[in-house]
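Researcher: Let's try something more involved. This one mixes different molecule types, so please make sure each is placed in the same coordinate frame as the others.
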Amino acid sequence: MNANRARQTFEQLLATYGPQAWWPADSPFEVMVGALLTQNTNWRNVEKAIANLKGSDMLDARRILDCERERLEELMRPAGFFRQKAERLQILCAFYLAHGGEAGLAKRSLKELRHELLALKGVGPETADSILLYALHLPIFVVDAYTKRIFGRLGLLDETATYHAVQQWFEEKLEPDTETFQEYHALIVEHAKRFCRVKPLCTDCPLCHDCRQGSSGNPSPFPPESAHC
DNA sequence: ACCCAGGGTCATA
DNA sequence: TATGACCATGGG
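Model: All components are placed in one shared frame. Result:
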């Protein structure tokens, strides 16, 4: 009965928030840029940086790679960590071009691509998996701080679990379906922004056992008494 | 004036 | 392997 908690929570999130239509971007390349820029950074700031790039007609791997570092840094400044991110974005662009863009990347296997992405400076597990899932539409589950926080507080995961352990927990309980993985991670982020911040906001949280007690009389299908936001 | 954000790298023990 | 410093902007 506990084996389906991953699936049940997904259904509940989907019923609560509806489809999230992630990743917000006009192209796979823009997804890759966003995945790098959003590292430990509010998405609003990322949008400003991407708007700057678009406004200068610079949202292009070739042009970013050829761009003077200082100029690129200025465009990316709103996204924070702009010096390291400018360097790392150019590295990612070089990788992108070396593989023949999306068409070239699409011919390679998930494992192969993941290994190569992780070898790039500035690309860790979450960034790599975000690119694989949302830019290349490959079925891999993206784990972030929110994922650990939510499922940790629900008592389903050890909050200190490694990235790989958390990823496995989901992937062994769900069918390897790209659309589901895309929707699930998006829903986790949407939910976390509302209810699962560092300072818990335990009010009418749709996942939280304690919050659900008073809301209505419907018997909660989620047993753990310890579950809270 | 603090805390936080859709992480990752590197140095140190 | 496991912490800790560091990176930097902008909103609450």
